Amino acid sequence: MADDSGRQPPRRRVPGPARPERSARPVGRPRPGPGARPARRPTAPRPAAPKVIRLGSPRPRLRMVGLALTLVLIAFVVRLLQVQAVDASTYAAKAEQNRYVGYTLAAERGGITDRAGVALATSVDAYTITADPTLFTRKQLKIGDGPEQAAALLAPILGEEQDTLVKKLRPANKDLRYVVLANRQTPQVWKQIKDLKSALGTKAEDDKSTVNVLAGVLAVPTSKRVYPNGDLAAGILGWVNADGKGGGGVEQQLNSLLAGKDGKIRYAQSGGVQVPTVGSTETPAVPGSDVELTIDRDIQWAAQNAITDQVEESKADRGYVIVQDTRTGEILAMANSPGFDPNDLSKASSVNMGNAALQDAFEPGSTAKVMSMAAVLEQGVATPQTHVVVPNRLHRGDRLFKDDINHPTWYLTLNGVLAKSSNIGTILATGQLGKTQRQANQVLYSYLRKFGLGRYTGLGFPGETPGILARPGDWSTSQQYTIPFGQGVSINAMQAASVYSTIANGGVRTEPTLVRGTKGPDGRFTPAAKPKETRVVSARTAKTLAQMLESVVDDEEGTGTKARIPGYRVAGKTGTANRVDPATGKYKGYTSSFAGFAPADKPRITVYCAIQNATKGNYFGGQICGPVYKKVMEFALKSLQVPPTGAKAARLPVIYKP
Question: Are 472 and 438 in contact (CB under 8 A)?
Fold first, then answer.
């Protein structure tokens, strides 16, 4: 029956009569009767179920691991921030320092040549041997005496003390990555080191007990200064020191031009080897300029041989010869003896390493009389034929003056005073320059200054002396009378030569020059500036003086007969002065000299020679310097192909009959 909702009520199960209980069958027996199931095989009893162990919750452990990982990550982040942000510049600098190395690229030094382009100083390939001290440590080589072993191998090759090399390879600064073991070594030296280094490296590969202690030795290409002519013109050229800078002479004077501009290179390295894939930065070096001198190598050779032979023969302290072109002021030769070889300074004496022709100040003696005569002629107070009575002694001031020899009263012309080199006659002649001796002193002083005394020559040479010429108001009583014949005043050899070149050049002083020009890295030649010119005396006075100087050489009464050159007219003057010993400041020995030019009537070349303190044989200037003058002048005239003029000498009178 349906309820009000129309749904049928659920059926109820009516329990039926109870079923009779089945009798228990024996296990394993077949069911009786047809259609009975086959009997089951007996089964093995099941084992008892294992006891289950329940674990605790994993969540606390996961939390702890997560916390630990978080702390580690935080530490990494903090360290990363410190390295990349806070201390970034510091660590970057350290990395750069350890990874990158750099060194200077030495500029090729310019060459020095003579006027014909013949090399006097040049540069050849060389290597500066360097090392990275960090590659010699125990940590790097696995041995404690790496620097000692390396130094023992390198010392005989480099010619250095073993202890010195050890100190460089084990510096106090443990971070030092670059040291110089030896400067400017020949390619042969570097090849020897490379071969030894390669042999050690090969042996180390085959024998693990061997260590290549030279692995950290490197080389930087550079250049070495060489002087092909040995000691020729060494006083002019100078030398280059271990730092590659000029240490004297033209090398020092023009160092900025010759040296050029060094470059720089910086590259990444590992174990002393450049890493090519990282790249490098390089600023190329700019080569130095070549310098062309006014020197003629052949004339320089002749001058140097002549003065060296005479200095040795006379057992003198030193000597110098200067050869100058009278028309241009160019110096064709400047020789000193003894000299030095700039290729091997270890054998050079410091006393001889300068340029004595410019650095020695000495009293010129009678060669200075030509300036006194120039003043007398230019002022018009006398002529070459003016009569001068020359007594054996002359009292002036606080002294009694004499000539170099005792003689009866001489009756000389002014020309004869110069020809016979009379001190007394010169004093008498220059006394006419003023109404009083004070006025005469002032006039003479003005001419000495115009001739270049007491001032630099204009060469700008290192160590040059301007000489000593006191103002006339400071002249002592004796100096008033000794300065006219070359005592009480000091000059250098170049100043003396310039005086005679001034007379030869028609009375115009041209500043001496030693450099013709320079050639830059671009190959362009730049001539030197034109030298300054100053008129000292008139052309007429200069011509008259040249004729008077001929009498010194050509006339039998003259003191310079040993300077005669067959076929040429020679003008010259002898000089023999008391010498001031530079060690004691007192007079000791003599300065012997000869100065002149040729051809006398058409001058082309001036030669000046001086020898200091000749101790063997004759010491008079005409006797020991006259022959040197002749040898050098003859060679120079032939070398420059200067022909004789063929004109006859004026032969001015030397003496007169009273």
Answer: yes
Q: Which two tokens stand for residue 199?
A: 């042999």
10 Å Cβ neighbour count for 422? 26
- In DSSP terms, 325 is beta-bridged to 605
Cβ distance 543 to 405 under 8 Å? no
pTM of the model: 0.79
What are residue 574's DSSP bridge partners?
594
User: Cα–Cα distances in Å, from 32 out to 25, 29, 35, 62, 422?
Assistant: 10, 9, 8, 66, 182
The 10s digit of each residue's pLDDT in 197-240 is 999 988 888 887 788 999 899 998 888 899 999 999 999 999 99
113 neighbors 295 (Cβ within 8 angstroms): no
Return the closest-CA partner of residue 394 out of 515, 480, 509.
480
User: Over the range 262-284, which residues count as b (16 or more CB within 10 Å of their CB) and which as e?
Assistant: eeebebebeebeeeeeeeeeeee
Q: Which of 553, 555, 546 is nearest to 626 (CA)?
A: 553
The predicted-structure confidence for 471-517, as pLDDT tens digits, reads as follows 999 999 999 999 999 999 999 999 999 999 999 999 999 999 999 99
Q: Are strands 515-519 and 399-402 parallel, antiparallel or unpaired?
A: unpaired
C-alpha to C-alpha distance for 196 and 190, rounded to whole angstroms: 10
- Residue 417 structure tokens: 């005073």
Helix residue ranges per DSSP H, 208-296: 234-237, 249-253, 255-259
Contact 91, 271 (CB under 8 A): no
Q: Is the dihedral of CA 171, 177, 183, 185 positive or negative?
A: positive
β partners of residue 513: 330
Q: Out of 123, 366, 422, 593, pick the active-site residue.
A: 366
Cα 624–Cα 629–Cα 633 angle in degrees, nearest 5? 160
Q: ∠ CA(172), CA(126), CA(227), 5° rounding?
A: 120
Q: Specify the 3-state DSSP secondary structure of 242.
A: coil
77: CB partners within 8 A, 6+ apart: none
Catalytic residue flag (residue 89): no
Is 166:160 a contact under the CB 8 Å cutoff?
no
Coil, helix or strand at residue 455:
coil
Distance of CA 560 to the CA centre of its chain: 42
Q: How far is CA 296 from CA 258, 300, 304, 603, in A?
A: 20, 6, 12, 18
